[in-house]
Amino acid sequence: MVDKITFKQIKDAIINIANELEKNRQYYNDLDAPIGDSDHGDSICSTFKMVKESLINYDQDKDDIGDLLKTTGRELMFSGGAAMGPLYGSAFMEAGKVLSGKNEITYDDLVKMWVAFVDAIAKRGDVKVGEKTMYDTIHPAIGALEAAYSEGKSLEEAGNLVDIAAKNGMNATKDMISLRGRSSRLGERTIGHVDPGSASMYTVISTFFKSII
């Protein structure tokens, strides 16, 4: 059972996210090709590359998880990563606010962090489930996390349930019509294609939990 999650674990998790996104760069570009500009992989990877560089150079004397997440958010916010930058930036900024001053966090803190994260995306993007976006991945994943916590399941069990919910949410976008962004212009032609933003969000959430458990 994981009792505490340390500053180093959170920092390493975010760096791991950047690395995993980079491994899948072409996959995201390929997903984007039929319904977008074929550049989602390039965009999301370049955005998180800036985050990785920032965290590698992060002040070694600081161990505030809230500040770490807010630093990540600022890098994402001003990365120039089209709509992804502000959405992820807002999410990490809000997640950081609920963990300010903590150098390690509990299971309860982790739930609060991710609830703040998903709520920020909903607010910033004015988005809901079923619109074929990254929200279709993150919303059910955090719902699974909240349910697991309230039911007394271990963090390890919760991580597995989060991964399953996120993957199912991502795959569900294949049968949806895009209602957001440039792809929305294609209407029903977007059916049959997994949303690339939903796919990269799956990498983000899956890699995070695999890194801390």
Question: What does this protein structure show overall?
Answer:
The longest helix has 19 residues, at 107-125. The chain is mainly α and 213 residues long. The chain is built from nine helices and two strands. It has one domain: DhaL domain (Serine Threonine Protein Phosphatase 5, Tetratricopeptide repeat, Alpha Horseshoe), CATH 1.25.40. Strands 1-2 form a two-stranded antiparallel sheet. The relative contact order is 0.15.
Mean pLDDT reading: 93
As a whole number of angstroms, the C-alpha radius of gyration is 16 Å
Q: Termini, distance in Å? A: 9 Å
Strands of the widest sheet, in order across it, are: 1-2
Query: Total strand count, please?
Result: 2
**Multimeric organization:** single chain
Class derived from helix and strand content? mainly alpha
Task: Kindly report the name of the CATH homologous superfamily.
Answer: DhaL domain
The tally of structural domains comes to 1
In the predicted model, the low-confidence regions spanning at least 5 consecutive residues are none
**What is the overall shape?**
globular
Q: What percent of residues adopt helix (DSSP H or I)?
A: 55-70%
The CATH architecture can be named as Alpha Horseshoe
Instruction: Say what the CATH topology is.
Output: Serine Threonine Protein Phosphatase 5, Tetratricopeptide repeat
Topology as a string of helices (H) and strands (E): EHHHHHEHHHH
**CATH level-1 class:** Mainly Alpha
- The DSSP helix count reads 9
Major beta sheet, specifics? 2 strands, antiparallel
Strand proportion, as a percent range, falls in under 5%
